[in-house]
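Following up on my earlier message about manganese (II) ion. Here are the inputs again, as you asked, copied directly from the submission form:
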Amino acid sequence: MKILISNDDGYQAKGLVALYEAIRALPGVEVEVVAPEHNNSAKSNALTLHSPLYVHTAHNGFRYVNGTPADCVHIALTGLLGYRPDLVVSGINNGANMGDDTIYSGTVGAAMEGYLFGVPAIAFSQTEKGWAHLDAAAQKAAQLVAQLLPSLPSPVEAALPWLLNVNIPNLPADQIKGFKVARLGRRHAAEKVISQTNPRGDTMYWIGSAGAAKDGDEGTDFHAAAQGYATITPLQIDLTDHQRLPYWVPTAVQMSAPVPGGSA
Ligand code: MN
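Thanks, got it. Here's what our run produced:
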């Protein structure tokens, strides 16, 4: 089994190293890392289209790219690796990617890029920043990968890949209750933008922190993680508001009607 690992915190991030060490210790697994050179958190699925990408190899064998998480997985799958991995794994992120975070997350973006190319993928995050109990999180991640490896889609079945978003509480291994499948919750809108004055007198702005949980009810990732579970959320990409499709039909029909006296 060949596994591609990436992340969004950068190739030197502790979470990436811990995930790599835990996964490559699994039997029958070959692992390669292609990760961003710098922190690319909140870059979502962004691709770099207007400047060239360069790949370098670090002393530990990790390859790093002057681009986004999605760039890394994209170029890995479209030429750099020279083979198709059986699984793409991203993380372990420095902080939660729950609820709306998944829209912004570069950790999820890297995994989603694999998914878009038909490769099953998992995004791993720790729920708190700071890497506390990172070894426990890496062991949980490796446990899930080991569980899924035997059932990975063959290349023939790869038209139906899956994408998992996993959040692991920063707890010692014996205090993580286990895995729980959860839907995404919702966050409140982000905190206010922070404005400061730079040394030259210009006003500069910093994006505020993510909001607290707004929908953290039972069944959500927020709830399960707060209870001490590692959460598993299967994700899909279709953003269509299927419920409201019929609501918009009359508007489109109305606007498509011939305008009286108007030219076609
Ligand atoms: Mn990050």
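One observation from looking it over: The longest strand covers residues 30-36. Hope that helps, and feel free to reply on this thread.
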